[in-house]
Amino acid sequence: MPLVTSAEMFKKAYAGGYAIGAFNVNNMEVIQAIVGAAKEEKAPLILQVSAGARKYSNPIYLKKLVEAAVEDSGLDICLHLDHGDTFEVCKDCIDAGFTSVMIDASHHSFAENIKITKNVVDYAHARGVVVEAELGRLAGIEDAVNVSEADAQYTDPSEVEEFVAKTGVDSLAIAIGTSHGAFKFKGEAKLRFDILEDIGKRLPGFPIVLHGASSVPENLLETINQYGGNMPGAKGVPESMLRQAAKMAVCKINIDSDLRMAVTATIRKYFADNPSHFDPRQYLGPARDACKELVRHKLVHALGCNGKA
User: Which domains, and CATH codes, for the chain?
Assistant: First the structure.
């Protein structure tokens, strides 16, 4: 089976009131964990590669690992570029066989965002690749994305119709209060569902994307801090809010920080419990298992896409 685009996934997700999980990948163990969970839960899947992952692992290795996952699992898997910031980066990934790319020109003016996005859409669509873009700016730090709270801004619903019409983009990432990284909220978690509802009315049937949507599970946070970590005050998006968003217009929910936390918490504890061990397979195996269980939980309880493959 070849890699697929997200187009059919999103149509079914919108109609069914669930979201597809878009999980960031960096290495073999994390890919195996995500795909293993999706296979068990019979869930469609988006595996996405950030600028940091491309630099760390080399896109050739990651693409071959994802192709192996498709062959091994038999699942519909979309390979997506996360936060491509230039036409050239998107073109490189399209030419390399990615089936979906994100052009994030949200740091430019509205007019320039449209221009850059349209160029990517024209190149991608001519080659059967789908495109995600972004309106509004999420705060937080994750890989190459670094936006201060002062520079963050909610998506303006009055701009979405013009943007989609002029670019021809296939999905749209919006800012409603989520943020990148593990430190998303100070105090009570709050998302602007009124903005999401307004956008859904203006773009009926159009797939919306939620970035910065990791939940930062308390049990993982406690384990990390118990075994030498230092993450005081980390706080994510409650899964109940993710399910609410998925029942509205959100068809794709990005998850990265939770994967990192599952791996890190497991390895920190393993080192403390087994100080004489030095074989990476000894601690990467349990880390993979923990990551798999986290993804399985997300597919069922946060995304609702289990059984939809």
Answer: 7-303 (3.20.20.70)
